[in-house]
TrEMBL record:
<comment type="similarity">
    <text>Belongs to the short-chain dehydrogenases/reductases (SDR) family.</text>
</comment>
<dbReference type="InterPro" id="IPR057326">
    <property type="entry name" value="KR_dom"/>
</dbReference>
<dbReference type="Pfam" id="PF00106">
    <property type="entry name" value="adh_short"/>
</dbReference>
<protein>
    <submittedName>
        <fullName>SDR family oxidoreductase</fullName>
    </submittedName>
</protein>
<dbReference type="InterPro" id="IPR020904">
    <property type="entry name" value="Sc_DH/Rdtase_CS"/>
</dbReference>
<feature type="domain" description="Ketoreductase">
    <location>
        <begin position="13"/>
        <end position="185"/>
    </location>
</feature>
<dbReference type="InterPro" id="IPR002347">
    <property type="entry name" value="SDR_fam"/>
</dbReference>
<keyword id="KW-0560">Oxidoreductase</keyword>
<dbReference type="InterPro" id="IPR036291">
    <property type="entry name" value="NAD(P)-bd_dom_sf"/>
</dbReference>
Amino acid sequence: MQRGAEGADRDRAVALVTGAGRGLGAAIARELAPDHELLLGARTTASLESILTELPGATGWPVELTDYPAVAAAAAPIERLDVLVHNAGIADLGTIAESSVRQWRETLEANLIAVVELTRLLLPALRAAHGHVVLINSGAGLRANAGWSSYAASKFGLRAFGDALRLEEPSIRVTSVHPGRIDTDMQREIVAGEGRTYDPAQFLRPETVARTVRTAIDTPRDGHPTEIVLRPR
C-alpha cells in the first residue's frame, strides 16, 4: 500500500493544514477529517493537543515554518500530497511611521517566504497526486488599508505567488481564498488593538470559511477555482 506520508493510508487523500491548532485552521481540519488523512501543522506539539484529541485519526506535524532546515526534514517523508492548505500566518499591524524593519521582515517571512519554501519542498508530492494548494489570503491581499501596510504587502505577495505557481505547475490546482475578517482569537486581538468592542456577529464564522475551502477542494477536476472572495454579510 503506497503511503503519502509516514503513517498515512493512501486509501484516502492526504491533506496538510498549517496553523491547524485553533481558529480557521482547526475548522478546516474538521471539515476535511471525514475523508482525508490529516497532517496538522503548528509551531509546537502542545498547541495541537486539543485538535488531535478531537480528531484522533489525524497526525500532528509540529514545526516552526520559518526554521527551514526543520521544515525540510518534516516535509521529506511526504511522498504524495493531495491537498496543501496554507493557513498559518501573523498580523502585526501599525502605521508605516510606527513600523520597523523587524516587523516587515517577520511579517513577510511568516506570511509569504515560509509559504513559498514549504510549497517548493512539497512540489514533488503535489505533482505525484495532481494536488491542490489552497492559500488562505485576505481582503488585505486585494486592497491595502491604513495601518495594515506590512500585512497587506505580504498578502499581495502571496496572491502573486499563487498566480505564478498556477501557471508554472499546470498539474496542480491553486486556489487563493480572500476572506473578510473572521471570528477568531487573532481577530479579538486586532479589535482590541483598534480600541473597539468585539462583536462576533460582525465577522465570518471560521466554519463558513472552512466550508468554502472544502467546496474549492471538491470542485470536479475539469474546473479550477482560482480565486474566491468571501465577505461578511
